Amino acid sequence: MAVSSLNLLVLIVGMTREGVGKTALAEGLAAGLKELGFRVGVMKPMGFLDWYKDYAVVREGAEEGVLASREAFEARLLLGLRDPPEVLNPLAGLVAPLNLKAFYDYRVPRSFFVYQADIMRRTVVLRVTLLKAGETVSQGYVNKTLLEKGLTILDRDDVMNLLKRADRVEEVYSPHELAAIVASRAPEAIRSCLSRLSTKYRLIIVEGLGDAAWPLSDLSIGVHAVVAVAPGMAVAYDPERYKLAVELKAEVSGEVRLEDIADYLTPRAYFRLPPLSYGELPETRAEKLSPLIEYVARLAEA
């Protein structure tokens, strides 16, 4: 399933693992391009929700019977997209608060800190969606060990409410299994959902996870613009050179982060970023991002 050459893919990636405002920038960029008359879609290929920090989004997802990232729900609400959240966010994981009492009961309190530092150990459920014959097919994976051993404060009902729309649910027993599922299923899931979006939108803004350099998973997908975000500034890279750097580094280390390839890249343009508040409307953010919006628009019109 190929992404149409008529589409322009804009990759938004983070320079650091901490939150740098990629979502606020992506939404503002999308709103600004939409005002210029472009048909704009967005995608968060993989996203994690924290049950404690993102409870409002988790609750909204439970009402719809779907686990999806905050970015997917915001895109539908703020940008008026009507695509299912599973298509805007093909892979989603829920990070569960740990039950500290259980670690003391098992006499392994230090393991609490090991689990806390490893996002896959705290992932209680994973949802993967792809399109087959034009229909969405979702599969849920439940971390049985976390639930059965009481290592999380959530129970099975909390998890299953988020998988009501899933076509199938399986149980896994380790974070290594979850990581293997992500690695094996991400390319097809992302490509199939991206192919669907490419039939509707001229520009597709793809938001990365943390500081991962290539959130699309599949290196055969071409991108037309790469914008890396740091606090207060963004830089645009040559997309071909950027992809080549990712490919070369991936051959050596597998997973690639921005810092791994920064020495091999020369920015094409720099953009100062004023503070972008999540309370602002996307149109307000767009006003603050006008130089970046104009830069992407020129690429789309070339």
Q: What's a concise summary of this model?
A:
Residues 1-5 have low confidence and may be disordered. This protein has helices spanning 22-35, 55-64, 70-79, 85-88, 100-105, 109-116, 144-148, 156-160, 175-198, 239-253, 258-261, 282-288, 290-301; strands at residues 8-14, 40-43, 46-50, 91-95, 123-132, 135-143, 168-172, 203-207, 225-230, 233-237, 269-272. The protein is built from 13 helices and eleven strands.
Explain this structure to me?
The structure is a single chain. This protein is α/β, with parallel strands linked by helices. 41% of the residues lie in helices and 22% in strands. The N terminus is likely disordered.
